[in-house]
Amino acid sequence: MAPSDDNDAPVLPWDNFSQWVHAICVVTFDLELGQAMEMIYPGDRELSERERSNICYLAFPDSNSGLMGNVQFHFRIRQCPETRTRCPGPAPVYDCDAPTAIQTDPGYLYGYVYFRQVKDRSLRRGYFQKSVVLLSKLPLVSLFTQVLELVAPEYFDTGEASLEAACHHLDQWPPPEPGSTLSLPLLGTVLQV
């Protein structure tokens, strides 16, 4: 029997997801507790305490001076050595074919944030403030901004089940392929990238 190559290897759950996204996190902001990571999906994704802390601090927009509604932005953090090896990202062939501007940067994660702030007099702070953060090895700002425009409002409206559904859709995406046009289904929409 001839040895099989990587193309014949079975695709395991979350393999395709991991080529695009490391995790989706929800960060909540409380007057007494400060920033706290409320959830990481999928639940098996590991982040060091330092990475969690950095994500929580960076998930709140610095320039938020009374701005109401939704704000999107992105950041980049250095991964801790102990989690770097457990965050595979896209296949190595991705960087060979990708233009320099969208190549991965070993040792870093990009965070794409959808922050929501609305008045809520029932809360001590007077505002509901929460961020949905998508973490990826890929610096694809336009794509992940669009992804969060679909995923975050759905999460705020319907809760955790919508994040689970979105992650399962992301797991159905083909691997990222620079130079090719891909149709990527997500929550009833097809993104062309």
UniProtKB/TrEMBL annotation:
InterPro entries: ABL9/DENND6_dom (IPR018307), DENND6 (IPR024224), Tripartite_DENN (IPR037516). GO terms for cellular component: recycling endosome. Pfam families: Avl9 (PF09794). It comes from the Eukaryota. Residues 22-193 form the UDENN domain. One of its GO terms (molecular function) is guanyl-nucleotide exchange factor activity. Belongs to the DENND6 family. PANTHER family: LD41638P (PTHR13677). This is UDENN domain-containing protein.
